[in-house]
Amino acid sequence: MAWMPDWAVNILVLAAAIGVALAAHRFLFRLATRLVSERQLFWRSLVQRTRGLIRLALIIVCLGFGAAVAPLNPGEAALLRHVLQVCFIALVGWVAMTVLHIWTTIYLRRFKLDSEDNLLARKHTTQSRILQRVAGILIVLITVSAALMTFEGVRQYGVSLLASAGAAGIVVGLALQPVLKNLFAGIQLAVTQPIRLEDAVIVEGEWGNVEEITATYVVVRLWDWRRMVLPLSYFIENPFQNWTRESASLIGTAYIYVDYTAPVVVMRRKLEEIAGASPLWDKRVVNMQVTDLKSDTMEIRMLVSASNAGRTFDIRCEVREKMIAFLQAEYPSALPRGRAEIEGRREERFGLEHAGAAERVV
């Protein structure tokens, strides 16, 4: 190729190096896919996840050999080495992110969020997801910083910035305060865990489940499928209710107001019967008490327990419906009668007043 100009030879050699890298990657990927086709899902997903990573690694290696063969002048050789250096730094960051993802996946395979008692699974899943996102942010920052430091102008700017770090540090700290605040709040949440994934919480007067915890915000899935998005710092600085902090089981409360003639003992036996026949009851707590006396009714509190917040809400509704149906069928006089009696007295007064007026007319 002595008759060809140097720039054409350089392009041809580098293009050939990239072609060899792509051909080698295609061959290796097909071979690896065949080898893991009958293995576990983990190995198949590992091959798919590392596909782009291996392609970039082969291109860097082949371009390195091509740079040694091509007749590059000093400027072109320096530029190509710089590009390969930046690509290698990006490759290392990509490898770190992949290793982090694989390690988290393997670690969380032992825990099942869809199990009946998933407290331990929610604890480890929340901790791992938050730390994974924080570590991912740090990996990206370090990778970008290392790549930028390969440029001479950025290195000089960094040195000059450090020389005047007094005022610049204050300005940057104030500008990044919300980001740093949520970042440290995420680390604190991962360690202390006031909330976990799928926790039942009440925030801003709304009931829902923690659906997602990112590096900066939390998504709460409300009972009517709306999503409430809150910053991580909210759960550090504000009070909120967590119904599944230590256990997913809850005691549900259902109130009913009845007449003073209501048979409390019979109603208590009926409540035990309703709970025993319900598949929602976890067979731990069932109780009935007269908790208050009004001027014309008794306030009766019924307690039933269930394995999680959703079941607790459903069994509360079931207890109310079946207890009202029982009283309507068996003891209708036990239902509140205040309004009917008031109407009766008003009609009676109206009749007396009408009779008196008739007598006066006569």
TrEMBL record:
<feature type="transmembrane region" description="Helical">
    <location>
        <begin position="130"/>
        <end position="151"/>
    </location>
</feature>
<dbReference type="InterPro" id="IPR023408">
    <property type="entry name" value="MscS_beta-dom_sf"/>
</dbReference>
<feature type="transmembrane region" description="Helical">
    <location>
        <begin position="83"/>
        <end position="109"/>
    </location>
</feature>
<feature type="transmembrane region" description="Helical">
    <location>
        <begin position="53"/>
        <end position="71"/>
    </location>
</feature>
<dbReference type="InterPro" id="IPR006685">
    <property type="entry name" value="MscS_channel_2nd"/>
</dbReference>
<keyword id="KW-0472">Membrane</keyword>
<keyword id="KW-1133">Transmembrane helix</keyword>
<protein>
    <submittedName>
        <fullName>Mechanosensitive ion channel family protein</fullName>
    </submittedName>
</protein>
<dbReference type="Pfam" id="PF00924">
    <property type="entry name" value="MS_channel_2nd"/>
</dbReference>
<feature type="transmembrane region" description="Helical">
    <location>
        <begin position="12"/>
        <end position="32"/>
    </location>
</feature>
<feature type="domain" description="Mechanosensitive ion channel MscS">
    <location>
        <begin position="179"/>
        <end position="245"/>
    </location>
</feature>
<dbReference type="InterPro" id="IPR010920">
    <property type="entry name" value="LSM_dom_sf"/>
</dbReference>
<keyword id="KW-0812">Transmembrane</keyword>
<feature type="transmembrane region" description="Helical">
    <location>
        <begin position="157"/>
        <end position="176"/>
    </location>
</feature>
